[in-house]
Amino acid sequence: MEIVARIRAHRTALVVLVAIVASLWTLQQLGFDAPIWSGCTADLDKCSSIIALGLFQGMIVSLIALGYTLVYGILQLINFANGDVFMLGSVMTLLGVQIVGLQSDSPAISVILTFAVLLPVTMLLMAGLNASIERLAYRPLRRAPTLATLISAIGMSYVLQNVGQKIIGPSPVSLPNLLPTNNVIGPGGLLEIGTLEIKVSHLFVTVVTLPLLFGLMWFVRSTRQGKAMRATAQDREAAGLMGIDVNRTITLTFLLAGALAGGAGIVVALYNGSAWWFYGTPYGLLAFTAAVLGGIGNLLGAAIGGIILGILISLNAFYFEQRWQEVFVFGILVLILVFRPTGLLAEKQSERA
User: Fold this and answer.
1) What digits encode the pLDDT tens for the residues 75-109?
2) What is the DSSP letter of 186?
3) What pLDDT digit, counting tens, does each position of 181-239 carry?
4) Is residue 249 within 8 Å of residue 235, measured between CB atoms?
5) How far is residue 218's CA from residue 210's CA, in Å, rounded to a whole number?
6) Rg of the chain taking only CA atoms, in angstroms
7) Rounded CA gap, 348 and 48, in Å?
8) CA distances from 93 to 39, 125, 200 (A)
9) What are the backbone angles phi and psi of residue 105, rounded to the nearest 5°?
10) Spatial contact of 97 and 175, defined as CB atoms under 8 Å apart
């Protein structure tokens, strides 16, 4: 019965999905070429490998998207500085690697120990930075018009970008290749499944991101502070009347969002092998689109939205043109806002009296 209820709740999305698939199949039968559809139907093994790569990219996007959706759920604010907090997380990773002196041929135990220290330290620093942004730039404007807070968020984004540029310079800076390039699944790996290739770096992304994703969802749903966050998101004034410290709850929300952004920054720096002051803009756009796609304010929706978006971008880059990625992302964002503004998993909200 629960499955039936969920299908009914999202029947519009299912109808649209079926219509898209039917249209693509019809166009293919008529001889029209749809690059992604034609490529996947022609070689399913290759398509599965591309989808797997997109899945790992989507996990990273999901971590950043959760920061957007957490803050929006409580303050109804798009924290545009969240993407740049993530960027500074990658910068801190670069500095940490340089301080320790790791190289591509460093022993595996040295890399693991450095990462074991670097991950919590970077997450704590980015959590503190994000909470400081809330205290200095957002809290004084909490009763101001929404536009004022939005402009403040954009201003903080530019400030953080310039901080990152000041630290590492205007160009991308490469890190040593610290993650092995061996296959876990594929030629030379533990298993061989068609042409599917999953490397150690992909496993690294999974090992870091999934515990953070599920840990956050458990925290929000099961702990006392998580319940306070949900109550504050539902009605801030009523939560205050019931004895919840609203300011402390909002600070906790920014701490969690910053910690997730810092964790994502480490993953991207090691996975891509570089840090760049401009990383916050493309990844921030992807994360914001993912949050809107899944239903901004919905944690599970943001996670699923990030994974879906990562897969779609991976397919677009391989079968179409990578240079069209921004057009592709903005196109998805516009379609969502036009046809389903609440996102895929967000529930309809009644107007408050």
Assistant:
1) 888 899 999 999 999 999 999 999 999 998 899 89
2) S
3) 888 888 877 778 777 788 889 999 999 999 999 999 999 999 999 999 999 988 888 99
4) no
5) 12
6) 21
7) 34
8) 37, 11, 19
9) -100, 15
10) yes
